Amino acid sequence: MTTSTASRLTSPTPPSLLKRLFNHETFLAWLFLLPSLIGFITFYAVPGVRGLYISFTDWDMLSAPKFIGVENYADMFQDKQFWRSLQVTVYYVILNIPLQTILAIGLAVMMDRVTKSNIIRGIFIMPWLLPPVIVALIWLWMLDPTLGFVNNLFQFLGFSRQPFLGSPDQAMPSIALINIWQYTGYTALLFFAGLQTIPKSLYEAAAIDGANERRIFWSITLPLLRPVLVFVLVTTIIGSFQIFDTIAVTTGGGPIDATRVITWYIFEFAFQRFQMGYATAVSVVLFLILIVATVLQMRLLRADESDLA
């Protein structure tokens, strides 16, 4: 008997696939995953598959759905209001995300370099702890053309009163500023947590080499914050595309459809016109848009790489 033959006879046989799937450790892993798996299947997978089916039907929520194929999608792409709502949504994202991200990074750097007080961090995150509806109601009162605090302050300083939420030109920037006020503090805390992962020795070495604060920020801080930046951009852009609460409380899609974002467009067809099949088709398209946007961001920002490695 050769040596190789003897080694094959004496070496243990690798466990089969079934044994690997159902051994003690795997069973415990599945046991811990089971609650989340049940929740995902119940509240995401099943409704998602059912929603995809509904998008191919004509359903008013009162009678049985009637299968109509891709008619909803054909009507959607021919509807100028759909493209207009998508354009308004993109406009809101452009107003919201860059300014919110820049302010959040600035606040995070200040919290890291100037003060690390827990009281300051708590003040920054307080607006995020408020429900969006409450925030919208507060700012609806503050921006009121007649009784609002902001317009009274403008008048006191010698400026003219502004319509803000009542103006087609000012409504969407006003809503963007409301959401920036609410979420910038939370986003800053995410960046602040990312700053804690950057080795302080890098800053010390840069200071010894004579680098100023601006050079340190662009050469060390920002590149090493890239993983956190990817996470923040992906989540905030997804959230911005789904804005609804603030618009529902403040403008209701107006004035003159200036704030009629894609989620409000879906809401109108689903619960005001009772065209649930068409509304679901728009939701499916929105889902695909967000997937494409997320993949592009992760590719362009190299989400799978780390400069700390």
| Strands in their spatial order, largest beta sheet | 1-2
Q: Residue share in helices?
A: over 70%
What name is given to the CATH topology of the largest domain? MetI-like fold
What is the domain tally?
A: 2
Radius of gyration using CA atoms only:
26 Å
What's the main sheet like? 2 strands, antiparallel
Number of strands: 2
Mean pLDDT: 88
Low-pLDDT residue spans: none
Strand content: under 5%
General description of the model:
This protein is an all-alpha fold. It has 2 domains: 14-67, no CATH class; 73-300, MetI-like fold (Orthogonal Bundle). It has helices at residues 3-10, 17-21, 24-54, 71-78, 80-113, 118-129, 132-142, 149-156, 171-195, 200-208, 213-224, 226-241, 245-250, 262-272, 276-300; strands at 57-58, 66-67. The protein has a two-stranded antiparallel ribbon. The two termini are 50 Å apart. 24% of the residues are buried.
Question: Summed up, what is this model?
Answer:
The chain contains 15 helices and two strands.
Secondary structure elements and pairings:
Layout: H1 3-10, H2 17-21, H3 24-54, E1 57-58, E2 66-67, H4 71-78, H5 80-113, H6 118-129, H7 132-142, H8 149-156, H9 171-195, H10 200-208, H11 213-224, H12 226-241, H13 245-250, H14 262-272, H15 276-300
Helix pairs in contact: 4-15, 5-9, 5-12, 6-9, 9-12, 12-15, 14-15
